[in-house]
């Protein structure tokens, strides 16, 4: 398999802060400040090297500010690297932020032909694809209107249609799910899957892990401009949630949490049923919270374990307790089972309360565990976005 993109020791530096503007005001300000500069260097990418093979579908993931968009701009030849080199074999079509690739004064029709010309296509080749592009975008009524009058949704629909239908060898997409309704997202993801199935190379940046795991075969994790992990898409998502820069632990042992002569907490863990503690916790599988403790009291029936659950904003969501479960003197291992598809993907925090006689918390440990629920792979063509809220319980429905 031939190499589509080869990136070697690429770094990108920006100078941030106040810049010399060359004006009289700027010159005078520099004189009175002693010539000191308030600017500083910022390296958005730092010594990045990797190869992408022809036909690979690569998901690039990382936190905001990791360097993902900067890397795509360099690959799209919108900006040049400060150091290093890039070798690209094949025509590249990019869909980056809204506004990239179209001339605002030209109509939608003119921009379609302009983009085709930039890709090295003849007018005849673009014309053969034109009706298909317009139908996919859904902007038929406005195709002869200057795109500066388009809404952001219309703009992105047409831009994606152009990028995907003009048959580039390499397709670069930056967070296509961020704009547009559910129907548009389905069409985009379906088309990306179709492009990938034709053996073309796709580079996809997204914060939507379900889309990354569904569409991509390989993954790259960036953190502060540096590649931290490269492997399969599944492994990259798992690394992102349980590895670099994240202080999440799905299994914690304790040796100092106890109430004298009553209670000694040994461990607490959370995982998908049948999985290991190191595996990411997926939304579509049953979840088990296991709490192990020693109870020394002669009256174990007096005690109840309660958890309070908080969302990523620190807002209390609900509490749940072992009120219907009898404890015993000695070692207790409580397993609380949460049904599949109960949680949305996101970050959650547990606080633990050990309650005596159903009224007094004799022990409280706030934020005892922070855990992350990740998106599960979904079928191409279904909605990949996030539903509102933090949970999505499945209720019983009947039709009579």
Describe what this molecule looks like in 3D.
With 400 residues, this protein is an alpha/beta fold. It folds into 2 domains: 240 residues, Rossmann fold; 124 residues, Coagulation Factor XIII, Chain A, domain 1. 22% of the residues lie in helices and 35% in strands. It has 8 helices and 19 strands. The strands form 4 sheets. The protein has a 6-stranded mixed β-sheet, with helices on both faces. Strand 18 and strand 19 form a beta hairpin. Helix 4 packs across helix 5. The radius of gyration is 27 Å and the shape is elongated. The model has no long low-confidence stretch (mean pLDDT 83).
In short:
The protein has helices spanning 24-32, 68-75, 108-118, 123-137, 152-165, 182-197, 209-215, 233-242; strands at 3-16, 40-53, 57-61, 83-88, 92-95, 170-174, 201-205, 218-223, 226-232, 251-253, 258-259, 263-272, 281-282, 287-295, 303-310, 316-321, 330-338, 346-356, 360-374.
The CATH architecture category of the largest domain equals 3-Layer(aba) Sandwich
CATH class of the largest domain: Alpha Beta
How many separate helices? 8
- Strand content of the residues, in percent? 35-45%
* Lateral arrangement of strands in the main beta sheet: 5-6-7-3-8-9
Task: Enter the CATH topology name of the largest domain.
Answer: Rossmann fold
Report the radius of gyration as a whole number of Å.
27 Å
The helix content, as a percent range, equals 10-25%
Give the CA-based shape.
Answer: elongated
